[in-house]
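hey m, so remember when u said the tokens were messed up on ur end? i reran from scratch. heres the input so u can diff it against urs
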Amino acid sequence: QTLLNLAKDERVLKEPSPQGLVVSYGDSAITVRLRLYAKNDVYWGLYWDLMKKTKSVLDEAKIEIPFPQRVVTLVDKKK
């Protein structure tokens, strides 16, 4: 729903309606996609505006972007 809120832009076409999709599940991520449609003459401006807004919208919704982490445990073999 958070990403779908980005589609509330006058440049986004109402039909076909915007969709929020889960694309894949990874070890450290759930890949999602916002699918929407716009006219050719406004596509790139809309694209870059949405790219700029996405991180702040996710932050406002307290949705964190995960990153791979590795835990390393050192064992002292002298003991």
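this time it looks ok to me. Residues 18 and 53 are 17 Å apart (CA to CA). if urs says something different then somethings off w ur setup not the seq
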